[in-house]
Design brief:
single chain, mainly beta, 29 strands, 57% strand, flat
């Protein structure tokens, strides 16, 4: 039995600490999508993707046991060739934690077609009404009307893309410590907003760079990323980023994110899926570990080759695992046949302060489509578990869908298979729930694949 440190030991401890739970941070409700235009929804020659969310909050340093919320009001447009399509999500005003208060958040992801004008596109928009950061007895930063827009489109056979950010207002409330003056860069940002000059606002934010705009007694304002567009002969992509605030206590708040993509579709259809080796959730959807490592399956496949994302050993005090790998495979054939696969693997992982060790986990799904575009077979061939060791005893993995309970240590389920409609499949090779009172649930060896028509 390995004596290495406990997976998520610090994260689990953080959950029980007073005032640290991400209360309400991931409470999402699906907004009714706007009424679509009268144009009929049909299959197009393009594949569309998009996503948008309002905020993502990390309480404390993630490498020192801090916790990360899921994206607020997250809206996703999955791989599809059908247009028009609209998805939306909404988050009401909520207090995430002491000193972090988020107003209403709205996200919309959509694709559209204008066949007469030969225009097709994918568009993602996020709007954060307001967010206030800081304690009542100190400096507080109020940011209003953050909008991020990503637009990827094709006009008469040529791909185009745009990415934009807009802020309607930023206010610094309360006194700065020791009578400090407002930082010059913050004054420039406020002036650009007052002028209504979006390009200047973006320039000031991005000009802050890695050093950011330091606000004494509060934290640092930085760009969450650079607005980005990629345009090629078969695809275009747009990524819009808002701003990032790193508080003096180590917490991080990302505000505003939108992403959109369009690409020429394959005749065999559109692929979707992903693989990741581990993911941990600690009660109420709060992430202890995100999907690590994560490998998506591109909409247009991988030309029949495996795409791999691997980690020899994650560089995190939270994670005690080795040889993590995630892979996806998509082979569209000219005669209409197609094969989609996803696979993830973990060589070794230790939980519960060394009380539980799991070795040789692989999760794999395989989806097959015939010449007529029908999915004829879906399997989890390749999914397996090597060994489960606790208290010096080796246990057999439970049968698919069954549970193994190791008293005082964990409940383990294996081969959790889920059909994704009639055209896809997902599997968690193992799902482990620790019985130490933290509520930690760990998915190990997750794979998902689907072929759409």
């Amino acid at each position: 039995m390995s004596s290495r440190t406990t997976l998520l030991k610090r994260a689990a401890a953080t959950v029980t600490a007073a005032g640290v739970a991400l209360t309400g941070a991931v409470v999402l409700t699906t907004a009714a999508a706007p009424a679509e235009a009268a144009i009929k929804r049909v299959e197009t020659p393009f594949a569309y993707q998009g996503s948008a969310y309002g905020t993502r909050v990390s309480l404390g340093d993630p490498n020192q046991g801090g916790l990360t919320s899921g994206p607020s009001a997250w809206s996703v447009l999955g791989c599809t060739a059908m247009a028009p399509t609209t998805h939306g999500n909404h988050l009401a005003k909520v207090g995430v934690a002491d000193g972090i208060n988020i107003g209403a958040v709205d996200s919309v992801t959509s694709d559209y077609r204008k066949p007469k004008q030969k225009i097709y596109g994918s568009r993602s928009v996020n709007k954060v009404a307001d967010i206030t950061l800081g304690q009542k007895d100190g400096p507080r930063l109020r940011i209003k009307g953050v909008t991020t827009v990503a637009h990827a489109y094709n006009v008469k056979g040529k791909f185009r893309a745009t990415a934009d950010i807009d802020l309607s207002g930023v206010d610094l409330l309360g006194p700065l410590p020791n009578g400090d003056n407002q930082p010059k860069e913050l004054q420039q940002l406020l002036g650009a907003i007052d002028k209504g000059d979006d390009q200047l606002v973006e320039a000031v934010i991005e000009g802050a760079g890695s050093d950011g705009i330091k606000i004494p007694g509060l934290g640092t304002v930085k760009p969450a990323g650079s607005q980005r567009t990629v345009i090629g002969p078969r695809r275009s992509m747009a990524g819009a980023y808002g701003i990032r605030v790193i508080l003096d206590n180590g917490s991080r708040v990302d505000i505003g994110r939108a992403w959109a993509k369009i690409e020429s579709a394959q005749p065999a259809g559109v692929f979707t899926g992903n693989a990741y080796a581990v993911q941990a959730v600690v009660g109420n959807g709060v992430l202890g570990i995100g999907k690590t490592p994560f490998q998506p399956l591109p909409c247009t496949g991988t030309s029949g080759k495996w795409r791999t994302n691997a980690l020899a050993q994650p560089k995190s005090s939270q994670l005690d695992a080795s040889a993590l790998k995630a892979e996806t495979f998509g082979n569209p054939m000219r005669d209409g046949r197609a094969v989609a696969r996803a696979r993830s693997a973990v060589a070794d992982i230790v939980l519960g302060g060394g009380s539980l060790e799991i070795q040789g986990v692989v999760g794999q799904v395989n989806v097959f489509q015939n010449k007529r575009g029908q999915v004829v077979r879906r399997t989890t061939a390749g999914t397996r578990v090597g060994a489960i060791i606790a208290g010096g005893k080796t246990y057999e993995a439970p049968a698919p869908g069954q549970a193994l309970e190791i008293p005082g240590v964990a409940t383990i389920r294996a081969g959790l298979r889920q059909n994704l409609g009639k055209r896809g499949l997902r599997v968690h090779a193992l799902q482990v729930k620790l019985l130490d009172g933290t509520g930690l649930v760990l998915n190990i060896g997750t794979a998902r694949a689907k072929i759409l028509r």
